[in-house]
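The protein record reproduced below.
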Amino acid sequence: MSGSDVQRADAVYEQLIARAGESWVEPRLDRTAKMLAYLDDPQRTYRVVHVTGTNGKTSTARMIESLIRAHGLRTGLFTSPHLVRFTERILIDGEPIADDAVSDAWNEIEPFISLVDEELAADGQNPLTFFELLTVLAFVACADAPVDVLVLEVGMGGAWDSTNTADGDVAVIGPVAMDHAARLGATREEIAEVKAGIIKPGARVVSAQQDAGVAAVLRRVAAEQGAQIAFEGADFALTDRKLAVGGQQVSFRGLAASYDEDYLPLFGRHQAANAALALAAVEALIGGGEQPIPDDLRAEGFGEATSPGRLELIGTEPTIVVDAAHNPHGARALVEALGESFDMDEWGVVLGVMADKDIAGIIGELATIATHVFATESDSERSASADEIADAAEERGLRPTVHPNVVDAMEAAREWAAEGEKRAVLVAGSIVLGGEAIALARVEGWKP
């Protein structure tokens, strides 16, 4: 790819981020739908697997995409946010979208942006946002590729998320827990109502295990839409898992068959549960839940699955692990996975959290393993201050140190880890922070 292609793609991103950012969310679908109508509805040119949930969306979506690609189908994957470069959000056949494809898609979209913005202004509404336009860009790029199936991760919630302008052939609902309460609802049931909005008439639905109240909401909405729903536990399940080098061996009871000892190169029980959900989703898509997935296709699909920024080893000597856990539910799963997968006595936690997250709840979960907290903040206007994070850590009986940015925090954490045996560094609390740590690790060569 030429330097000019990179520059043009970066220029597209600059135009996107000049708009209202991802922290600005308004429950509206009609403006995204209007843009797509001007473009002849590219999101209707391929099948769609739509993924929502509180935690595990990205990992589950990536496994679904890998399994579908193993079937010889051309795939698109739209996830958010990115770790290092925005092209990571749109994958075509498992690879970040090419820079020239970004600029080509933008050239198709750009003539209609001012038109829709003017219509919005006349109606007293705000202009198209970063995420609304990025969603349109992804839909156009996948149509241009073209792809057979798009695996589509919800940005926030479901019902009014801009991704919901697509009609999912399969709706995938991960665990529903408390998150974004100010926008999605004050109870799990209210949040489930929003997430259930991705269930379309006649679709297949697969859901992780849920609280009784959440399950009741999902069953009701599925029935209203004439959709067939399958739940983890009752209809499919993770039946066994064993530690293995670089990951784990997992066995499942799927919708169509039982599958024994597939290798999954990811750590943690939560990733094994995500794999069970992904497997059921692909069974539902490919064979309507009645066609088993052959051994060789599962081996290829799971074997090539990656989940950047999720229990990702980015450094050795000392060991440095990045995880995107950004709410208490995710932090709890992270702690369990660390204890199971890494033989360490002490963890130094480089912690940076967005201001709208449950900082105290996250620290409460991580406090069980954190020997030292290196409180910091990412380069984001949404980030809580390092001092705020340190204060919350002190309230949990920890002794944090304060660092103004990830470079200073990582330097201090690596020095701390090098001073003792069986010490390691964990970077957690924010996907943005994780991305900054990953970029720094690449530049400084922490992992040969």
About this structure: The radius of gyration is 21 Å.
